[in-house]
Design goal:
about 90 residues, alpha+beta, two-stranded antiparallel ribbon, two-stranded antiparallel sheet, about 15% strand
Length: about 90
């Protein structure tokens, strides 16, 4: 029996995780967390599409003032979705 591919925000979870594994985390002078990476084009496109999908889903039904609030961060939402997906596979 073939297993269905796992998709998060319209992209294969394996591709998203491969892109995220290439990021380095650091703190800048103000203490903010900074993520940097040089991604291969395919993984960069995958991550960009996933984040744009999340942004579009978050924007649907929200007014612009709410959407611009800091807690509506597409990268944070992506981490949440990956966690929920992985937890559901157990």
């Amino acid at each position: 029996m073939t297993r269905e591919p796992t998709v998060v925000a319209g992209e294969l979870i394996e591709d998203i995780e491969a892109a995220l594994e290439l990021f380095e985390l650091a703190f800048d002078d103000c203490g903010c967390l900074v993520m940097t990476a040089k991604l291969p084009p395919r993984l960069s496109q995958c991550l960009n599409r996933a984040l744009k999908t999340i942004m579009a889903e978050m924007a649907a039904g929200m007014d612009s003032a709410t959407f611009n609030e800091r807690h509506f961060d597409p990268m944070n939402e992506l981490f949440v979705r990956i966690g929920e997906t992985r937890a559901g596979q157990d």
